[in-house]
């Protein structure tokens, strides 16, 4: 077990999980589980808050009963029911995310590398562990679709469609408008004539920095100078959300030579503004994908929200506010989708339309062709905050 990190404690030796990629880097099992546990704690605090409100209203209702005001009693009952219902909702999510990937069973291959064999994933939308597994699946499928389309000589573009930053109160309605605007954009005859297929993914970034850091200032120096701001000043974008689309476009081989098909950046921006029905010029970025195995797919198939944008370890009240906002805004939405030629290829390849977190992800780098020697089981240790080996040399044929 030379590939396992060890730690001695009270004369016992703990073997921690080490699961290396082909490039030698660790897969982020531990980091994702820590963030999932932090999410579970946040959901738990939200549940407790709702129950506290329900109990407070119940106490007030007793006083109203003494006064004999029947109409107010009905309102109190409705409020108590709503808060208790929300508490149950948050409690269930807390339990699910807490139990996510608590036990991992790996095949240990003939070259001592590992391949995940069995695990339970909670499928909670904001779970960092499940988001990572979903991203792997989306990247794998998009890579297969794009590779198939490239064989047919299609070319690819990366399109980013944005809007202004919005507050948490505006987020859900803004996302509604983004989806409606996207549909209007791709119904335009100009787009339908030029684009033969697309893949779309929603991403939301969120600014958790209360003050402008030196790094932030250096990265956007012109912006801060234009607004008369410097490092150390209050951040004007603190707690603001930036929802936007990353889109992979498939176009005909003659797209760049045919003036009836080629669309300049300024025209993309004008059409997106028209589709959004806004009175400002939204930021739009369009660029060529020169290498389909390069960064293009990674840029398109990102996490919807990075865990660092909603889990702020040093600020629990802020974390809970963000988690509540994002959970509500993303509920029951289809965050990735295919259209046109790329959708046809997705169906032709018989790829799963469900993007739940899974154990086996076809085509991802975890696929190892050599034979398994045995199984190893790891369990999450709350004390160590790490995955600890609990059993090894398990017979593969027994599973």
Draw up the topology in text.
Layout: E1 5-9, E2 12-16, H1 29-67, H2 70-98, E3 103-109, E4 114-119, H3 128-151, E5 155-161, H4 168-185, H5 189-194, E6 195-206, H6 214-219, H7 221-226, E7 241-251, H8 265-276, E8 284-288, H9 295-300, H10 316-330, E9 336-339, H11 340-348, E10 372-381, E11 386-394
Antiparallel strand pairs: 1-2, 3-4, 3-10, 5-7, 5-8, 6-7, 6-9, 10-11
Helix pairs in contact: 1-2, 1-10, 3-11, 4-8, 4-10
Structural class: alpha+beta
* CATH fold field value of the largest domain: Replication Protein E1, Chain: A
Largest sheet: 5 strands, antiparallel
Rg, Cα atoms, Å: 25 Å
Return residue spans where pLDDT drops below 50 for at least 5 consecutive residues.
Answer: 363-368
Instruction: Provide the domain count.
Output: 2
Query: Could you give the order of the helices and strands?
Result: EEHHEEHEHHEHHEHEHHEHEE
Quantity of strands, as a count: 11
Shape: globular
- Counting H and I runs of at least 4 residues, what is the number of helices? 11
Q: Separation of termini?
A: 21 Å
What would the average pLDDT be, to the nearest integer? 90
Please bin the fraction of helical residues. 40-55%
Which strand order does the major sheet show? 8-5-7-6-9
The top level CATH class name of the largest domain: Alpha Beta
% residues in beta strands: 15-25%
Query: From the coordinates shown, what is the CATH architecture of the largest domain?
Result: 3-Layer(aba) Sandwich
List its salient traits.
single chain; 399 residues; alpha+beta; Replication Protein E1, Chain: A; 2 domains; five-stranded antiparallel beta sheet; four-stranded antiparallel beta sheet; 11 helices; 11 strands
